[in-house]
């Protein structure tokens, strides 16, 4: 595990600044460029393999991110995937161009191909296909659009989280989840983590909708949802919470700390994604490890394989997960 000092040296900032940024301290005044350096340093130091650079460039591949650069800093899951894609493409000898949500995509057709990260509406997918037919999506199943994609498994880890709670004697289980929309304001369906969570607990006759709150996938939303839960369910709080991503969990931890609720003694938490921030919260966050670097690398390798093929055959690659236990859960 990289230390605060390691990250501070790589990002060229103080140890205190790193600690406050990784914990999404709202009182800290620091620019987005500095925050990006810190988050990218933290993620890159978590990657264990060394990048092997090739001298000869083989072409230019675009990375399309559904977030703006600023929004990406609120959800390190997507930043981590992007870094994984970039690392593998550079290792394979490709030049890389980034496109964020608010960038013009007019030059996308000049790229050899593109790895597209995040969630998109049917209209957006059709537009991207017109701009460049060599595409691989990450974190969205696009097989219905005849486009290859790389996904993470959701059902198995949710089952593992619920089993961990119940084995620890915690049967009053709630969830903080989020609702997503695409950049063109198309509402997406329910969070797949929530769908599996609800299905599994209903099968156990242990589903309690009063302990389910929905916001968005940001630290501030996690904070506000936790405050709401503590107020609305003060006489009947759950014993354990599954939180749909790490950013929300950081906000929820802050709300619990301010309210004097001890974690995990009074409320156990497990989040999802296991980005670098989980190791720097207090207490450290238990989280489902999503292999974001592998997702990015697999997408890059799949795209390169497609570029060399005489025919593009759409396929789905699903990457497994691991439950990483730390101090926020019993």
UniProtKB/TrEMBL annotation:
Signal peptide: none annotated. Gene3D superfamilies: 3.40.50.2300, lambda repressor-like DNA-binding domains. CDD domains: HTH_LacI, PBP1_GalR. Residues 2-58 form the HTH lacI-type domain. Keywords: DNA-binding, Transcription, Transcription regulation. InterPro entries: HTH_LacI, LacI/GalR-like_sensor, Lambda_DNA-bd_dom_sf, Peripla_BP_I. This is LacI family transcriptional regulator.
